[in-house]
C-alpha cells in the first residue's frame, strides 16, 4: 500500500525514512519544514507551504510545495497516512 | 476481511505516556475484531524490559499489560532485532511477549497495514 | 468526495498540532469533502474545556472547533479516560465521580476509545495530528 508519511519533527526524519518503502511519500509539516530550507529536494517529498510562510523560510531547492488543500488531496492520492511521532 | 492496524512503539517508557496510551488503543481496537499488530522499534524496545519499577516514581507500571496482548487476540508482536542489538539488549532481558524480526519485515508490515498509529 | 476523521493528540497550549488539525479540517471541508469525527486523545483533550481562556489577541481553539463543528455537523469527541484524568468532565461524569464542577464545552462530548476505532473503520482517511 502506498503510504504518505506526515513528519512534524525534523529530528525524526531518519527514523521515519527507515520505515518507508519504495513507493511511499513524505510531507514535511510544522517544524519539519526546516528540512526543506536546508536539504536538497527529493521525488515524493513534499513540504507544507503555510508552515514555510509562518516561519519565513524558503526551500533551498526545487521542492514540491503543497498548500493545505494540496495536503488534503495528497492524503487521498496515497492509500493511507502515517503521522510519524 | 477485517481491517489491519499496526501500533508502533518507538519511545522508551515513562518520559511520556504514549506507550500506555497506545496499549489502550490496541486493546480497544482488538475488541472491534481488527487485525492488530504491535511493533517495537527504536527506543520502543525498552517498553518490553522485564524489570521495570516505575512505582519508585509513583508512576503506574503498564508493562504487565503487554502480556495481555495475546489474550486479546493480538497475535503479531514484533521487535526490530537491529534496534535491540544496537542497544545491547538481549531477548532474555525482555518480557516474553514478542519475537524478533528484521527491519525489512517491519517495513513490510507497516506497508501492508490499513492503518498505523504512533503517539 | 471523501470522508475524513481526525485523531488529535497535540497539546493545545504547548504545540502546533491543534492548529494544524483545525486548518486541515477547514481545508478539507472547503474543497467539498466530509468530516465525520474529530477524536481527541492524550493531551489533545485539553482543548475541550470551555474554561480555556487565551489572551484576547490569540486564537481560541475551543471556540473555533465548536463553531466549525456546528457549521459543518461533525462530532468532537474527547476520550473519557484521559479527559477525566486531566480534569475535563461533563456534568454526568462529574456527578458520578463526586467532582464539584464540570467544564466540558457543550459542542464536545466525552466517550470511549471505541469512537476512535469506529471513526477509523467508517472513514476513508484517518489523519493523526500529534
From TrEMBL, chain A:
PANTHER family: PROTEIN TUSB (PTHR37526). This is tRNA 2-thiouridine synthesizing protein B. NCBIfam families: sulf_tusB_dsrH. It holds the Pfam family DsrH. It comes from Kangiella japonica. It comes from the Bacteria. SUPFAM superfamilies: DsrEFH-like (SSF75169). Gene3D superfamilies: DsrEFH-like.
UniProtKB/TrEMBL annotation, chain B:
PANTHER family: PROTEIN TUSC. Belongs to the DsrF/TusC family. It holds the Pfam family DsrE. It comes from Kangiella japonica. NCBIfam families: PRK00211.1, sulf_tusC_dsrF. This is Sulfurtransferase complex subunit TusC. It comes from the Bacteria.
TrEMBL record, chain C:
The keyword Cytoplasm applies. It comes from the Bacteria. SUPFAM superfamilies: DsrEFH-like. Its main location: cytoplasm. Keywords: Cytoplasm, Transferase. It is found in: Cytoplasm. The keyword Cytoplasm applies. Belongs to the DsrE/TusD family. This is Sulfurtransferase complex subunit TusD. It comes from Kangiella japonica. The gene is tusD.
